[in-house]
Structures are given as C-alpha cells and as structure tokens.
Amino acid sequence: MLEIRNLTKIYDDGTEALKNVSFKVEDGEFLVIIGLSGSGKSTLLRCINRLIEPTDGEILWNGKDVAKADGRDLREIRRQIGMIFQHFNLVKRSSVLTNVLSGRLGYVSPWSSILHHFPSEDRKRAYEALEMVGITDQAEKRADELSGGQQQRVGIARALMQEPSMILADEPVASLDPVLAHSILGYLEDINKQRNITIMCSLHYLDLVQQYSSRVIGLRGGNLVYEGSNADIRKMTDNQFKEIYGEEAVRVNAGSISGGADE
Amino acid sequence: MSNTNTKKIKPLVPPVAAAVLSAIIPGLGQLLSFRIRRGLLLFFSLVSIMGLFIWRLAVIAHREIGIADRLAKSFSREPFFIIFICLAIFALWLWIIYDAFKTAGGSADKSLGIFVLILVMFFSLGWQISEINVGKMIREFPEAWPPLSRILWPWEAAVTRDTSSVTAEAAILVDDTKNPPPIPEYIEGEPYIKSTPTYGKMSTLDADNNMILGDTIHLEGSGFEPDTETFIYWEDSVGNEFRPRQNGKYVTLTTDASGGFSFDLVIPYRLTPPSAVGQQIHHVQARQISEVGPVKASEPLRLTIVLMLETIFMGMMATFFGIIFAIPLSFLAARNLMSGSWITVTIYYIIRTIFNITRSIEPMIWALIAVVWVGLGPFAGIIALTIHTIAALGKLYSESIESIDPGPIEAIQATGANRLQTIMFAVVPQMIPPFVSFTIYRWDINVRMSTVIGMVGGGGIGFLLVQYIRLLDYKSAGIAVWFIAITVAILDYVSSKIRERFV
Fold first, then answer.
1. At a CB cut-off of 8 Å and minimum separation 6, what does A25 contact?
2. Which residues in chain A are closer than 8 Å to B413, comparing Cβ atoms?
C-alpha cells in the first residue's frame, strides 16, 4: 500500500510542482492521474520512486518512508516499483533482450551484471516477459529498430522483470497512435487484474480514463483537486472536467476531452 | 517621409552643409544626420582603402623617394591597379558627398551598389598585397614541368638492380718518354686494353685558361661484353679517378659484336699533385657496368615504406595517448555533468578554455615546440599530435556526453540499479558510437597530420619528403608523395566505413 502525505516539491528555479498533496493507493488499484501538462503528474510519479527528490512530505510504501530511504534501501524499494515512460526510455542501441534484462539489475550481483552476465533463469524470465507482450521474435533486434508500440511493450516487459508490486506509468500512451493506446493499456489492465499489481498511471484522454481506471485523482497547478471512483468518473460532466483541466485546455482540446463525456 | 519621422531624429544640418562636411571629412554629414553606422562605415572604408593604397605604393616603388617619384614608378609598373584604385577612391568620395546630401534631406538611397564597389576595392588591394601573379604561373610552367612530371610519375626510381662492372686498365707514363710502362699482359677470355704508345704529354692550360690538347693515344680493347656501352676512366698517379671529356662530352664507347673497341683518346688535363715526384704513371681504364640479378626496391622506395609505417604508427600512438587523456578530461568539460556547483562550473570553464586554445594552435606549431623539448624525431611529432588530439577529442567527447539522452538513465535507475550499473547500462551504450566514430576520425586526421609534421622535424615521411625536395631529387620525392596520397585515401575510406557502422 502506498500513502502520500503532504508531498511538496519545489524545484531549484522556484517552481512549485506539488503543493501538499496527500492520497492513498490501495493494493491492486488502477489509479489514473489526470491533469494538464505541467500540473505535476510526472513530478508526483517520479517522487514516488525518488527519481526526483521531494522537498517535503512522506511517501509511505508498505509502511516505509521512501523519502527518507537511502542507498541500499532505496534501491530495494525501487526494484519493487516498476516504471514505464512516455518516451519508453529504452537504451536504443542495446538489444531488446538487454533492455528487458536490465529490469533485473536490482536483483543480480553488480559485478557480473556490468559484464552483461545474467543468470539463466533471468534470461528465461525475460523471454517469458517478452512472450507476455507478444514480441519474443524481436528479442535480438536493436531497440530502436522497433516501432513505438513495440518499444512500449519492451518497456512493460522491463518493468515486469522487476517482479514489482506496483507499476508507475508516466503517460504511457501519449506518444502512440490512439489505436495502440488500447493495446498498451490492455496489457496494463491484464497485469493489474491477473497479477494483482497496482498501477498508477497518468492519462490524457477521458475515454481511456473511464475505461481503464478503478480510481482517479486530478491535479491542477500542483494541487490535488479531484478524487473519485470509476463510477464517479463515468458520471463526470464536462464542467467538472473543466475544473480539473482549466478553461483554456477545454477551448483548445474540447473535442478530445469531452469526447467520451456525457453532454 | 511621415513614417520615418516617427523613428528618426531630424538631421542637425541642412543637405548642402552635410554634403560639404562629408566632402571634407567623409561620413561626417551622415553622422550629423544620425546615420551613425553608415557614416562610420564609409569613413573607415575610405580611410583604410587610402591607407592600404599608400602602403602599396611604397612597396611597389620601394627604391624611390618622394610621393611624385613613387607614384610615377608605381604607375609604370602597375598602371591598371593605380588607375582603378584612384578612380574608385574618387567615385567613392563623390558618392559619400551625394549620400550625405540625400541623407540630410531624409531620403537615403539603397546603398548596395556602393558597398559592392568598396568590396571590389578591397579585393583588388588584396590581389595586389598577396602578390597574385597569374602571368608568372603560366609563363613558368614549361620550366616547372620536368620536376613536376618526375613527381607525378616517379616509378622508374622505385626499382633498381644490382650492377657489376668489368674493368681493364693500362698504365700510361705522362710528360716523359723514358722507360714507358709495358703494355699489359693479355690473358685469354679476360677483358683487355692496350694503349699505343704507353706514354704521352698531358693536356695543359695556358695563361688564359685555354686548353692546349696533349698527345693522342690509341686505345684498343677486347674481351668485353659485345654491343655494350663502355666508359673510359682516367686514374692519376695518386689513385684519383675521373671520367675524361673529349669534345665536351664524357668519353663513352660502344663495343663491337666481338666485344672489342678501338679509340683515339687525347690525354686529359690533370693538375699534377704537388706531392708527386719522379715519373708519373697514370692509368687508363675501360669499364662496362651492367645490371645483373632481379629487379628490387630502390633505396628511396624502401625508405618511403619504412617511414610511411612510422607515420601510421605515429598517428596511432598519438590517438591512443590522446584518448587516454581526453576521456577523463571530457567528463570535466561536459556542461550537464559540471553544472552542480560554482566549483565544478569553474573547472568546466577552465578546461573548455584550455581545450579551445590548444585546439586553435596547429599541430605543426606544437611540433616546433616539441622538437625543442625532446629533439628531432617521431617522438616530437607524437607529442605534438597528442596535445592537439587531447583538445580536439576532449571537446568532441564532452559534446557527446552533453547530448546523451537522460531517459534511459532514469529508466535504469528506476529498476533499482546502482550507480555503476546505471553507467554501464544507460550511459556507456549511448557513448560508444560517438566515441568510436570521433576516435576513428581523429586517427585519420592524425595520420594525415603526421605526414606533414616531419617537415618541421617531427619524424615520419614528411621529414623524408622535405629532404628529397631540398636535394632536388624529385623522383624520390614523388614516391613519398604517392605513398602519402595512397595511404590517406585508403585511411579515409576505411575510417568512413567504420564510422558508418557505428552511427
């Protein structure tokens, strides 16, 4: 279980990305974070595994404060939390298999791993992960030879290699075609339902939010402005959506945002 | 001009005054109309053109004193140049006056034409200053062609064969008739030469250094190679030999079909050595030189190959040492890694500055310094190239570090990897392609540079090339030039192929 208490992040340039944000994530949830670009979604996700140092507040992961963890403890926590990214963040020149295997780095011995030596059960596990996302035949290719959708599936396979209890997904479909979005979110849904892995995912499109989320939180200007269940979000009106996204977003993006909402 | 009034201040003086002022001091009229840049540009253009022109007059007529003499002398030497510049200066002056008038009236013309004229003036001054002389280039081509052709096609000098010589000699008593030496003993099958008589007077010089021919001796030879060039040598009483001339040419015979010859030789002129006393016995020799054995590489070819190898390895060693120093330094010169605190930023700026200064000094100049340090030879060249390589590669490496994608780094960190693992999995794979590519490219440059670095004493083939050119041995120089060209071309191709695979 993850509990965020009074999380605040102020960047060096003075930007307040998160202001006193508190919420809870139960095990097995598919929590979706909505909000404009710059509302603090990415910062929030990255504070959870400390890719970004929080300025203040507590991040309780199964009772341990991530914000205070150091060195070995932090790495231990990180390996329990997988992460996938908008731009996939694969090592482009390495093979797909190496990218997937790098998900095991938190487990294997550092010295043998820097020589790219992994135990054979890890290799077996990597092929299983690739099979789960349906790209076993691409294992030997260089990561940048794959299409965007395939690269994101490699990202998912890499996260699965960590045997995580939770996966953070930072706009996982924002740089993919809408058609591929369902495929990628479908994998996340399977992972969530079949393996009981908590998913915390930021998304833009309301129809995707309505279809996949079990619960939704909304951020605006670093403040938590909305919290609701899947049932709530299905009932959400255009006006409530405007509240979260702000007037200008609606004007520019009205079509896509209100696409699935009841008028 | 209602719209210009909003942004321009009114000219200080009326048009006519502006024109007069610009006639006295070019550009002043424009300045007073607040066309500051235009005025200054025109003023400095005219002043610098006039200054350069006066300097060129002094150079062209450097023996003359006084302006009039210099002008006259220069005019006789470079009439077109003088006329053109004088007219152009006058035209420019007139235009500046006209422009001052128009500017003060508030309607400056488009000034493209006049700036083209100024550019043309600078280029014709440049032509004069850099002593470009196309006529000379064409005129002297016929004289330059023989050495050039030897450089272009030097391959006759690339091979050689062993020679063996066949010699026979006969003793001659000079300037005396008593007790002449006997004719040599004839041995069947051996080359043989006999002189009749075996004595005679040498050629001498009179008071006006005119040659007075000496006695003629009749030479008969046999037992030589048939139909072969045969050289006559003369050896004086102390054993110094030379080739005598007859009718202005070295005496050269061709043997007949049976390997014999007969020839009348005038006894040549030779100063008798002061140490010589008593009867002077000289020797006349007939000598055939023939090439024997297989064709083999000549000395220049072998030296060229050896020094070409040295050159390639110089480039390799300089690249190797360059990499060793450039890699750690490049991390200190990468802005993204060094933006942490003011100390690291200072280090970043210091190293960047050192890189830039070092890189702007050519390897040839570093070689001159290194020669002073470690003496002539390839080591000096390696030092010079290494210094330049460190700076060049350091800059390229640090730029590639600056441009790495942070995405994979955060992705690998998120898996729970430690620092070392993150570097090995996320940083190194991104760095290898640019590092390999830049390194190969630099090796290519280093070999190319080391072909010339020898010219200033830094070892390698350049050293040999300069030596051959100074000895006017153009064929050997040509061999070196060819080898440099071939090596560089191959290297260029190989390095581009390797780099292609890593990009």
1. A1, A2, A3, A4, A31, A166, A198, A200
2. 51, 78
CA distance B107 to B98: 11
Residue A158 lies in a domain: no
- At A172, list the tokens: 């996982």
**Contact by Cβ (8 Å): B417, B423:** no
Check whether residue B443 and residue B349 sit in a common domain. Answer: yes
Residue A149 belongs to a domain: no
Tell me the chain B residues in contact with residue A106 when contact means C-beta distances shorter than 8 Å. Answer: 415-417
Best probe of the B interface among A13, A52, A84, A89, by most B CBs < 10 A, is A89
Does residue B146 lie within any of the structural domains? no
B172 inside domain: yes
Structural domain total, chain B: 3
* A68 inside domain: yes
Which two tokens mark B164?
């063996």
Contacts of B412 in chain A (CB under 8 A): 91, 102, 105
Quote the number of domains for chain A: 1
Q: What is the CATH number of the domain that holds A226?
A: 3.40.50.300
CA distances from B313 to A9, A262, B49, B307, B438 (A): 56, 76, 50, 10, 18
Instruction: Out of B80, B113, B132, pick the residue that ends a domain.
Output: B132
CATH number of the structural domain spanning residue B208: 2.60.40
Beta strands A81-84; A166-169: pairing state:
parallel
Range(s) of the domain holding residue B263: 159-296
User: Which among A77, A80, A93 is the nearest to B433, CB-wise?
Assistant: A93
pLDDT in tens, B261-314: 888 899 888 877 667 677 888 899 888 887 777 888 889 999 999 999 999 999
Cβ-based neighbours of B71, under 8 Å, separated by 6 or more: B57, B61, B82
- Judge residue B311's burial from the number of C-beta atoms within 10 Å of its C-beta, 0-12 exposed, 13-18 middle, 19 or more buried: buried
Mean pLDDT of chain A, nearest integer: 87
Average pLDDT of span A156-184: 92
In chain A, the residue whose alpha carbon lies closest to the alpha carbon of B407 is A89
Task: Among B266, B296, B326, give the residue marking a domain's end.
Answer: B296
Q: Is residue B144 part of a domain?
A: no
Which residues have a Cβ under 8 Å from the Cβ of B79 and sit 6 or more positions away? none
B304 and B238 part of one domain: no
Q: pLDDT (tens digit, 9 = 90+) per residue, A135-155?
A: 999 999 999 999 999 999 999
Look at residue A136 and tell me if it is in a domain: no
Instruction: Name the closest residue on chain A to residue B411, using Cα atoms.
Output: A89
Amino acid at B336: N
User: Could you give the ipTM of this predicted complex?
Assistant: 0.89
**A91/B426 touch (CB, cutoff 8 Å), yes or no:** yes
